[in-house]
Amino acid sequence: MECPILPDFSADSSPPAQSPGAARRRLVLLISGRGSNMQALVEACRAEGWPADVAAVISSRPDAAGLDWARAQGIATQAVSHKDYPNREAFDAALAAAIEPHQPDYVLLAGFMRVLTPGFVARFAGRLVNIHPSLLPAFPGLHTHAQAIATGVRVHGCTVHFVTPLLDHGPIIAQGCVPVLADDTPEALAQRVLQVEHLAYPAAARWLAEGRVSLAADQRVDVAGNPSRLFMLESSR
Q1: Which of 41, 49, 116, 205 is 20 to 30 Å apart from 132, CA to CA?
Q2: In the chain, what are the domain boundaries?
Q3: Where does the chain bind N(1)-(5-phospho-beta-D-ribosyl)glycinamide (predicted)?
């Protein structure tokens, strides 16, 4: 059984909404590849004027294309390669050591392809957020688009959620959905899901930056102002 390690954000412990002059929230983004979700987050943060700054982009792969893009935006970058460490615990300790100097309010996983240890998750409990390419709790793990097609679901999508020790589980902040078409391939479906990811993740991150996200006593997420937390593509293609 999963142990609830997230702090109780309900009632008086909810993150306060930011007032004028309040400190800006600091975000650290974790990637492993080209970082399209990372780019969507950075661009939305700047274009929409979130009360937040992307303090750093950290990759588990030194050759990740997303690092070059982030550097070009003037964002601090670093690579912490899992290949340099003997086990997951050692890698996670090095990753945490790279993150901590940036003093993040939130650590956002944006295509970070490493399974994190319970110790790492506990260290950043309540501040660690992921986007997964399925409508959780359906299809945790890898090959989600192929699984969706193989099982015959008619709707597929993505989920933005707080990270807990149980892989691809945790309180859901937002979801995006797309139809599964009769002639879909995993590649075609993945491209449409990615489009809705670029809607759902920036919206969820903005709510976090604005201090609007809290957890109820039953560990379900509340967002002040009750915005729609379901995102859909305008067209099926």
Answers
A1: 49
A2: 24-124, 132-236
A3: 35-37
- Global pTM? 0.90
92-115 tens-digit pLDDT: 999 999 999 999 999 999 999 999
Residue list, annotated binding site for (6R)-10-formyltetrahydrofolate:
88, 130
Superfamily grouping for domain 24-124: Formyl transferase, N-terminal domain (3.40.50.170)
Question: What whole-number distance in Å separates Cα of residue 26 and Cα of residue 37?
Answer: 17
Query: 220: which 2 tokens?
Result: 């379900």
132 is catalytic: yes
Known binding-site residues equal 35-37, 88, 130
At 8, the pLDDT band (50, 70, 90 cuts) reads: very low
Which of the following is catalytic: 102, 132, 145, 198? 132
* CA dist 157 → 33, 64, 93, 123, 231 (Å): 20, 25, 32, 29, 9
